[in-house]
Amino acid sequence: MNGIANLAGKIRVDVQWREGLIQQVQLHSSRPREITRVLQAKPLTQALSMVPMIYSMCAVAQTVASLQAAESALGIEIKPEVTHARQLLVQAETARELGLRLSQYWLADTAQVVALMQWFTGVSQELRWALDLNPRVSNLIEVQRISSELKAILLPLVGMETELSRLLFGDASHTPIGEQLCDLQETFGDIELALGVLPLEVQQRADLEWIKGCLASADAVEFSAMPDADGICFETGVWVRNRESGLVVQGRAAGLNELTLRFLAMVSELQALPARMRSMEPHAALPAGDSGPERGAGMGMVDAARGVLIHRIVLDGNSVSNCKVEDYNIVAPTEWNFHPRGTLVQMLEGVQVNRERLHSLVEKLILLVDPCVAWEIEVGN
């Protein structure tokens, strides 16, 4: 692995299998627990510039969450147009991440990758002004054009929902998505996977309160590495956002395997992204600033490509020019989704599967839960 990958760490999935049964699944993460310490004592502007370099996988979402946290800590009220531009940038990054994942790992078709990357680069440059601390509104946001361009790029990849709806009820398909869907169901349709853990609900300000309390405690570093609520684990991301989408509901009614349903959830998200971007309207940011005796603290929350991303910052100082970072903590989607007692473990332990299909089953489920770091599988008998 390169230097960035080494800095990010990786996840190892140890699977114990015997006599046709997955006996145990253990997750081991080498993700550095205290990497945010490099931001402490830094001037705020310097720390904010470092965030996307440290967390390069979803740099836009990380930047937006860091800006939200800093702005709420400083009591800065952001204009709705700024929030709108940032939301669009996060959605654009989600399209890039999921489109790349689908092309490279599922369809073996990279023809659309170049167009998708060029589109994302163009949108990023166009809306770059919004990724500054308390920025001025720079230009008109051409949402209709941006979303139409994305739809034209994604259509060859994911097709239309009506095409896949027909396929779910027995029609033949010669599209790459349809063929992959059929292959997943034929290969794993007889395997009974368990359900995952509870969905992480962070829709209102009140939903953040218990997370804020954990990040403000003395155990903040441990919580960031393995977040749960008194032993209850949660999942976030593509499956949580799309588990009740039209395609997934139809697939469930047609009796599709849990693995295949998760693949449908990814497809459904990509199909819905252009319309979701068009329907977004300017509004004020979710108020995430801390209340109570601790001053100069703030939180930022972004629903990124892989799920809910939360930043919490504590500042020493009362203005951009004179404040430094006193404390900084991040809870990333991968820590929710690859918790040692989380979804992957819950879905796989106790599952009956023959040895020939074991590795592929675990691999495909990891891809669908989707970590933001490198991973490996080790199988022991």
Question: Cα distance, first to last residue?
Answer: 28 Å
What are the segments in which pLDDT stays under 50 over at least 5 consecutive residues?
1-6
Order of adjacent strands in the largest pleated sheet: 2-1-8
| CATH fold annotation | Cytochrome-c3 Hydrogenase, chain B
Strand content bin = 5-15%
- Oligomeric state of this protein: single chain
CATH class reads Mainly Alpha
Name the overall outline.
globular
Estimate the helix proportion, in percent. Answer: 40-55%
Largest beta-sheet characterization: 3 strands, mixed
Cα-based radius of gyration, to the nearest Å = 21 Å
Number of helices: 16
Query: In CATH terms, what is the architecture?
Result: Orthogonal Bundle
Task: Give the tally of β-strands.
Answer: 8
Number of domains: 1
Mean pLDDT: 90
**Helix-strand makeup class:** alpha/beta
The CATH superfamily label reads Cytochrome-c3 Hydrogenase, chain B
Following the backbone from N to C, one meets helices and strands in this order, namely HEEHHHHHHHEHHEHHHEEEHHHE
Keywords: Iron, Metal-binding, Nickel
Cofactor: Fe cation; Ni(2+)
InterPro entries: Ni-dep_hyd_lsu (IPR001501), NiFe-Hase_large (IPR029014), NiFe/NiFeSe_hydrgnase_LSU (IPR050867)
GO molecular function: nickel cation binding
How would you explain this protein's 3D organization?
Pfam families: NiFeSe_Hases. The protein has 381 residues and is α/β, with parallel strands linked by helices. It is built from 16 helices and eight strands. It has a three-stranded mixed beta sheet. Strands 5-6-7 form a three-stranded antiparallel beta sheet. The protein has a two-stranded parallel ribbon with strand order 3-4. The longest helix is centred in the first third of the chain and has 28 residues, at 80-107. The two termini are 28 Å apart.
